[in-house]
From TrEMBL:
Descriptive protein name: F-box protein At2g19630
Location of the F-box domain: 14-60
Organism: Rhodamnia argentea
Lineage, highest ranks first: Eukaryota, Viridiplantae, Streptophyta, Embryophyta, Tracheophyta
Membrane spanning residue stretches: none
Gene name linked to the record: LOC115756186
NCBIfam families linked to this entry: F_box_assoc_1
Top-level taxon of origin: Eukaryota
Pfam families listed in its UniProt record: F-box, FBA_3
Alphabetical list of InterPro entries matching this protein: F-box-assoc_dom_typ3, F-box-assoc_interact_dom, F-box-like_dom_sf, F-box_dom
Length: 404
């Protein structure tokens, strides 16, 4: 129970007090944004303890999932050769009210990093130089780890590719980072190494049984499995397109064959969840599109794919006009989100409803003037108090730069 003194009109304190049940207090607090809750930790020791309790954090996350927002990122033009990202949060656009979306600055990140990947349980993972940074965009806290170092080999070996992949296990409720290396040797010689880091544990661990592959595009985590497209190197240096599935809990790999024609030349497919299954959406320019082609993984064990074609409504071309847009993901409303390749303020985004065949346009206000030609990334994000955890005995979470 929480007790609050009630003052008489004369200014004296009454002996009676208002008793607020803790379950009612939790119901009130879990509806507040993370920014407010971070301030309310200073109200009292009991409030700090309550707001930091893992059970409250989970309860707040569950409620936040009903009102997700967007993380918008683009290269920082002021970073120069050092490189950097500017990251903003934008309200989700409600298709019923037709209101504009408003963007608020979250933080700026210094160092070369290409994109903001999928937000998982309130956290994102960024590869910045030789470090992996696990960030909570809502609290602007992060922890940094060095990428694993693999043993140098004598002879004519070169290190061809190193990539990091972020995943979440909903059963054990743990975040993990997968680091893969392709080590190239002489003629048709290569070695594949994989390492896993579980947030809050002591060190990177070697994972056996990693298939020889070259990761191509961004990952997508769904039901505890991380998927990404890759070149499968089973035939030496004559690679084939494939879908790699990494089970986060079991720490095991599967290679899934991609249907012929599912990947367009020069355009990587977008991985999404559709009706409880993983699906690939073609990512060509939508300026002249009449339809959207989707490949749905009906049965991963038997590698059965189903092709579906969505015919865009006539209003699509009038709405998009002369903009070249491409799909960047799905949002909380279940719609497919399209973003422009070149930027104008305000930034216009487009939504296509895969179930009703409806489309709509929204404008995002509050973003600074970005470079005209740059790669915008969008990620569906749920606010969370989840703290990013470092290695056991490691340093505490640090504060990210606030975006100006």
């Amino acid at each position: 129970m929480k007790r609050y003194n009630r003052r008489k009109s004369s200014g004296t304190t009454d002996d009676d007090s208002i008793v607020l049940p803790e379950d009612l207090l939790i119901e009130i607090l879990k509806r507040l944004p993370v920014k407010s809750l971070c301030r309310f930790r200073c109200v009292s020791t009991s409030w700090r303890s309550l707001i930091s309790d893992p059970r409250f954090i989970d309860s707040h996350l569950t409620h936040s999932a009903t009102r997700p927002n967007l993380i918008v990122s683009f290269p920082d033009p002021k970073a120069g050769r050092q490189g950097g990202l500017r990251i903003f949060s934008a309200d989700q656009s409600d298709p019923r009210d037709g209101q504009h979306q408003m963007a608020r600055p979250l933080f700026s990140l210094r160092g070369w990093t290409s994109y903001v990947p999928q937000s998982l349980h309130g956290l994102i993972s960024l590869k910045v130089g030789s470090h992996v940074k696990i960030c909570n965009p809502s609290t602007r806290k992060y922890v940094a780890f060095k990428s694993p170092r693999i043993k140098r080999r004598s002879g004519r070996w070169s290190y061809f590719q190193q990539t990091e992949t972020f995943g979440f296990d909903p059963v054990e409720r743990t975040h993990k980072v997968l680091s893969t290396w392709v080590v190239i040797g002489g003629v048709r010689e290569f070695i594949m190494e994989a390492w896993v880091l579980t947030l809050g544990t002591k060190e990177w661990r070697r994972v056996e049984g990693c298939p020889p592959h070259h990761k191509k595009d961004n990952e997508f985590c769904f039901n505890g499995v991380v998927y990404y497209t890759a070149w499968y190197l089973s035939h030496g240096f004559r690679p084939d397109n494939c879908l790699v599935a990494f089970d986060v809990r079991a720490e095991s790999f599967r290679v899934i064959t991609i249907p012929v024609g599912a990947i367009e030349v020069g355009h990587a497919p977008l991985l999404i969840e559709f009706e409880g299954r993983v699906a690939m959406v073609g990512c060509g320019d939508a300026l002249s599109w009449d339809e959207i082609v989707m490949w749905i993984l009906e049965d991963s064990d038997r590698e059965i794919w189903k092709k579906r074609v969505f015919v865009l409504p006539p209003c699509w071309k009038d709405m998009v006009a002369d903009r070249r847009v491409f799909p960047v993901g799905t949002v909380g409303s279940g719609e497919l989100l399209f973003a422009p390749r070149t930027l104008r303020n305000p930034v216009c985004v487009f939504y296509y409803n895969l179930k009703t065949n409806g489309c709509r346009r929204s404008e995002i206000y509050g973003l600074p003037e970005p470079p005209e030609y740059c790669h915008l990334t969008f990620s569906d994000h749920v606010e969370s108090l989840q703290p990013p955890r470092g290695l056991s005995g490691g340093s505490q979470a640090r504060q990210l730069f606030l975006a100006a």
